[in-house]
Design brief:
5-stranded mixed barrel; 5 helices; alpha/beta; Rossmann fold
């Protein structure tokens, strides 16, 4: 196995062990999809590649805290139902391998509105901006993928304080990586 750690921004990967390859995609689904697809397609060890997406996420419910391995990821800002009514499959839900129960909603919307948060909470426990795109790129290209998220905020008006929490989150994510690597 050759590990490629993917994060949206450098701060989320700040404490990844130095001997682990890191890809920083930029914020949002489009940048993440393009960067991960390019990295996989051009990777010299593609056949051995496993992708681990580490990052912060907003909690959609008050009882959701800490670190979570994701079992299901949903593209929350896609009009899936109207697309389905046209007879097309929008593929807005990706089930990841493993026994993880946490559902992550991904979209290009930075969630700070309590009404949006509450609506998303009916489908998911966490929200981010890249996870779905990373999972889709890996799934389409046949590369194993793990999404690991650390709660940084409550996806409400306090979400703008995210920058104060990111370093602590990055440290916890790095500890998870060390365990994943068996160190």
């Amino acid at each position: 196995m050759h590990l490629l750690v993917v994060a949206a921004i450098e701060a989320e990967a700040a404490h990844v062990p130095e001997d682990v390859e890191v890809l920083v995609t930029g914020v949002g689904k489009t940048l993440a999809a393009v960067a991960v697809t390019r990295a996989i397609c051009e990777h010299p060890r593609r056949e051995e590649l496993t992708v681990v997406n580490v990052g912060t996420a907003g909690a959609l419910r008050r009882d959701v805290t800490g670190l979570h391995e994701i079992g299901t990821v949903v593209n929350h800002d896609l009009s899936a139902e109207p697309i389905r009514q046209l007879g097309l499959d929008p593929r807005e839900v990706i089930e990841l391998p493993g026994e993880h129960e946490t559902v992550l909603a991904s979209g290009d919307l930075f969630v700070t509105d309590p009404a949006v948060r509450d609506a998303l909470a009916e489908r998911a426990g966490l929200v981010d901006m890249e996870g779905y795109a990373i999972a889709l790129a890996c799934t389409e290209l046949g590369v194993p993928v793990h999404l690991v998220k650390m709660v940084s905020d409550n996806a409400d008006e306090t979400a703008h304080d995210w920058s104060a929490a990111v370093d602590g989150c990055a440290r916890e994510l790095a500890r998870w990586l060390e365990d994943f690597l068996g160190r």
